[in-house]
Specification:
With about 400 residues, this protein is of the alpha/beta class. The protein has 12 helices and 16 strands. Helix 4 runs parallel beside helix 5 and helix 8 crosses helix 10. The longest helix is centred in the N-terminal third of the chain and has 15 residues. The protein is elongated. Bound molecules: ligand AOF and zinc ion.
């Protein structure tokens, strides 16, 4: 493990901060930030990846430093007359520079062209097209490459992207809002707004960070929700304009018994919806949605197949807002990676509805174990984030 200095840590922390600016827009790509510093410690350029198909973080930072990469003959002329402004500089990048030609040319080549002297990388790219190849290309060109500075932070930031790359499955987060006695709604179905306005604004950020929002027919029938990101609400808390993102998260609805029809709100707002069922639903003829038929497993559409389909659509992070049956089935089938609980300080009593129906547990040893990651106070509510232990 290389020894990193305090100034290395300072620059990488800046690169991580920059990377996070892309959190609502990079999907299906990872978040990446990059900072370029001269040999005598002056900041030359910085950049981050904003959107798939647009410049990668390194290219944006090089341009900010006054060097335009990937210009072929023009670029050689630029380099032969005088050294590039990035000659001998150190590059701090949160993800291994790419080695492949995807939507854009390889960043490793851009850094070689720019004659940088040293590249410090936080985490290695889990994309099999890149993994360790970016490092090898840079080293072959004589550039000093050091890896692992703030690796955990950088890896966690892209946990959903990494999971899809490694397991060919999306990273599934289940959200629940409940009372102190673990209830979501009264027996008569009244559940709107048991949590504070702060929690509801926080949900907007979570939705905006997701590639897809998953729900079931039960929830659509009970609440007729829109399950979208409301730009004004997001802006209120993050000061980030959501419209910079190409599109809203894909709404994904499980309707195993074809109970939905085209009159529900989410089929009429012009944004994308994908419905998974087991037989084509003619009642959705007028709805703005795509239907995919899958096999049945128990009472449900086969949820593993749902996830396989979503991974094939390059969905990294799924935010689930669903009722107790779908949430329970996801847990029972081992498809949940993360759990976010908003808990409001009230008691709703025994007749109120529960949160997660899990039928299969009889022994304590079989309990689903969660690791607590974070506790935040939002108004009067507590938000808790857990990771499911694998
Ligand atoms: C980098 N810097 O800023 C990003 C990287 O299709 P493309 O060209 O956008 O490439 C996407 C892949 O490139 C993505 O899956 C990941 O492996 C890497 N992302 N790499 O050097 C960046 N966003
Ligand atoms: Zn790249």
């Amino acid at each position: 493990m290389p020894q990193f200095s305090a100034s290395d840590a300072k620059w990488m922390a800046l690169a991580i901060q920059l990377a996070r600016k892309g959190r609502f827009s990079t999907t299906p790509n990872p978040m990446v930030g990059c900072v370029i510093v001269s040999a005598d410690g002056v900041l030359l350029g910085k950049g981050y990846h904003q959107k798939a198909g647009q410049g990668h973080a390194e290219v944006n930072a090089l341009i900010d430093a006054g060097f335009t990469p990937h210009r072929g003959a023009a670029s050689s002329a630029q380099q032969s007359s005088e050294p590039p402004p990035t000659d001998g500089s150190t590059v701090y990048v949160t993800l291994e520079p790419c080695s492949h030609t995807g939507r854009t040319p390889p960043c490793a080549n851009a850094l070689i062209e720019a004659k940088v002297g040293r590249v410090v990388i936080a985490s290695i790219d889990t994309n099999p097209l890149v993994k360790n190849r970016g490092v090898a290309m840079l080293r072959e060109a004589g550039i000093i490459v050091e890896t692992g500075l703030m690796d955990t932070l950088a890896t966690d930031m892209n946990v959903a992207f990494n999971y899809r790359m490694q397991h060919h499955l999306p990273w599934v987060c289940v959200k629940l809002a409940c009372s102190l006695d673990g209830r979501t709604a009264l027996e008569n179905g009244k559940s709107k707004w048991i949590t504070s306005s702060e929690s509801r604004l926080d949900v907007q950020q979570e939705r905006a960070s997701a590639c897809a929002i998953l729900s079931g027919a039960d929830t659509i029938i009970a609440d007729d929700p829109q399950l979208n990101v409301r730009e004004a609400e997001l802006q209120e808390t993050t000061k980030t304009r959501f419209s910079k993102r190409q599109k809203q998260p894909l709404r994904v609805i499980i309707d195993g018994k074809n109970r939905l029809n085209s009159r529900y709100n989410l089929f009429n707002d012009g944004q994308e919806v994908l419905v998974f069922n087991t037989e084509h639903n003619p009642q959705l003829k007028e709805a703005n949605c795509q239907q995919i038929q899958l096999n049945k497993k128990g009472d449900f559409v086969d949820l593993k197949e749902v996830m396989n389909n979503l991974a094939a659509l390059q969905i990294n992070r799924i935010w689930t807002e669903a009722g107790p049956s779908l949430c329970g089935a996801l847990f029972e089938q081992g498809l949940v990676n993360e759990f976010v609980l908003y808990q409001a300080p009230m008691l709703l009593g025994n007749k109120a509805k529960g949160t997660i129906n899990i039928h299969s547990l009889t022994e304590l040893d079989d309990a689903i174990a969660l690791e607590s990651l974070e506790i935040t106070q939002l108004g009067n509510d507590l938000k808790r984030r857990f990771r499911v232990k694998s």
